[in-house]
Amino acid sequence: MKVFCLGGAGRICREAILDLVQHSSFEKITVADFNEEEGHKVVKWLNDPRVDFQKVDVRNREATVQQMKGYDVVMDGTTITLNGLSTACIAEAGCHGINLNGFGEESASDKVFKKNGKTCVPGFGMTPGVTQMMAMHAANQLDEVESIRVSHGAFRPIAFSRSIAETTTYEYDPNLPDRVIYENGEFVQVPPFARPREIRLPEPYGTTVQYIIPHAETKTLAKALAHKGIKLIEVRGTWPKKNMQLVRALYEWGFLRNEKINVKGVEVGILDCISEYLFNSKEGTETELYGYSLHVEVVGMKDGKRMCHTLYHTHPASDGSVEGWEKLRAYTRNVGIPMAIATEMLAKGMVKATGVITTEEAFDPAAIFKELEKRQIFVHEEITEIGAETQAIVESMSR
Asked: How far apart are CA 359 and CA 221, in angstroms?
């Protein structure tokens, strides 16, 4: 089997490639990136005869398709704004495909994937990705599902890479139409910083205030659980406290609109200036606490009883006590490893459906959790029956 790792020089994708080197049965692993210098650094770091490098520019569709041909699967670590282009190349090349973001541009290539008998799974990292697996694991135990609240804390610098800075501003763009919740059969658009809710994450993260964000889970879970009567789906997220303070200020002062300004005769977007500063500053590339924390709450009925399933995950600490998980790597490995696991499952033919499909259609939660455990990433579950007292607590947390 052969895998083409698009955007492979990125900080997250290189961790996914490391996981393929350590755990997969691929015979050829190609680091494919526009940045030659960083790409060769990754090859040298991995130090494995199966790994090579190719320079690629997904904006050159014809050349990219030719480079991808002959590979079983493309593991796509490119940014949100490139995913439509990259997915079109993957489909035309006749490969399976998977990426981290899953924001919807991929669906335009559905017919081509089906024509070629191939599968594309958009959005499989920690969130979206593992969060859907956690939600489905709980939902599969229930007769009816009332509500799902997906939450996550991504504890990383605000701009350790340009793609991460782009994700940050994307999610809080005041004009974004896809920031929605699912409520009583409809997708309802909400503004940035909508529906604040306190989420208690495991230590060292603690209690955080989280807000609605635009994520694939809202739509994919609505589709997957329509037959169980799902009424409410909310997806929230947070970053380190200082990050959230900055983004809130940028929103309130109008910077997130990225309006054009003239600086010494040069017209630039004001947010583009801020993003460039953060990417090149200590403040934008460092933080006090590193890591990832998922929290998924599923409420529904089982044998006439109202139940609440709360799932969360843990991973090695970022304090240097576990080799390979130091500081930023405690974040990047959390995101990259699930994509690597799913990539091999695709290549091995473990996903039978063709076309562009959802995470819920593609993977078995138990199989994903088992592979995560091998990498010291553990999913925990707490199940409680909701009586009058518990219901009051749930309602209080929802306000």
From this structure: 9
Residues comprising the chain, all counted: 399
Cα separation of 339 and 130, whole Å?
A: 9
Q: What is the DSSP letter of 364?
A: -
Looking at residue 57, what DSSP letter applies?
-
Q: What is the pTM of this model?
A: 0.93
Residues 6+ apart with CB under 8 A from 294: 126, 127, 130, 131, 134, 150, 151, 152, 311, 312, 313
Q: Could you tell me if 65 and 93 are in contact, meaning their C-beta atoms sit under 8 angstroms apart?
A: yes
Residue pLDDT, tens place only, 90-123? 999 999 999 998 877 899 999 999 999 999 999 9
Cα distances from 154 to residues 4, 91, 132, 287, in angstroms, run 27, 31, 17, 11
What is the b/e burial string over 346-371, where b = at least 16 CB atoms within 10 angstroms of the residue's CB?
bbeeebeebbbbbbbebbebeebbeb
Exposure of 354 in the CB half-sphere (CA atoms within 13 A): 11
Q: Which one of 79-83, 148-152, 259-263 scores highest in mean pLDDT?
A: 148-152
Q: Are strands 180-183 and 232-238 parallel, antiparallel or unpaired?
A: antiparallel
CA-based nearest residue to 16, from 88, 98, 111, 93: 98
> What residue type is 177 in one-letter code?
P
Whole-angstrom Cα Rg for the chain: 21
Find, among 385, 395, 356, 377, the residue nearest to 133 by Cα.
Answer: 377
Do the bridges between strand 73-76 and strand 51-55 make them parallel or antiparallel, or are there none, so unpaired? unpaired
